[in-house]
Amino acid sequence: MAEADLDAVIRQLAKAQNKSLMAAARKRQGYYMAKAASAKDKDAKSRLKLMAKSAMEHGLAAAKRLQNSADNTADSYARAIKYAAEEIAAMKPAKKVEKAEKAEKKPGKKAAKKAGKKAA
Predict the structure, then answer these.
(1) How far, in Å, CA of 67 to CA of 72, rounded?
(2) Which residues contact 39 (CB under 8 A, 6 or more apart)?
(3) At what angle do helices 2-37 and 42-105 cross, to 10 degrees?
(4) Core-most of 19, 59, 75, 76, by most CB within 10 Å?
(5) What DSSP state is assigned to residue 107?
(6) Of all helices (H) and strands (E), which one includes residue 85?
């Protein structure tokens, strides 16, 4: 099923982006915590710890938004493909009915000659 493949790819790419985003947030948090450990005064230490906490919170929030966006996109794509497949399936029987109606209305040349000979 091609429609399942692409929405799975969307989710897979978002998962990879989410991992790299969280790794970057953890790296930034580690940077600030290392700075806080080497800070000389108490105010600088508390300020850097707060920045580390804030960096992690913002990274987590961004990752959640990214994941939600990817889920919505994948779901929307899956719904659109399903809807298109249903439309195509509904169109096929209609074409068969039209062909059958044309065949009933317009008999072939041989059937017309036989009908003409019987009438005469």
Answers:
(1) 9
(2) 45, 48
(3) 170
(4) 59
(5) -
(6) helix 42-105
74/2 Cα distance (integer angstroms): 13
Q: What is the pLDDT of residues 63-73, one digit of tens each?
A: 999 999 999 99
Report d(CA 47, CA 5) in Å as an integer.
47
* Residue range 71-82, pLDDT digits in tens: 999 999 989 988
**Structure tokens belonging to residue 88:** 């195509």
3-class secondary structure, 108: coil
CB 63 within 8 A of CB 25: yes
Token pair for 48: 């850097």
Using the 8-state DSSP alphabet, how is residue 38 labeled? T
Taking the model in full, what pTM does it have?
Answer: 0.65
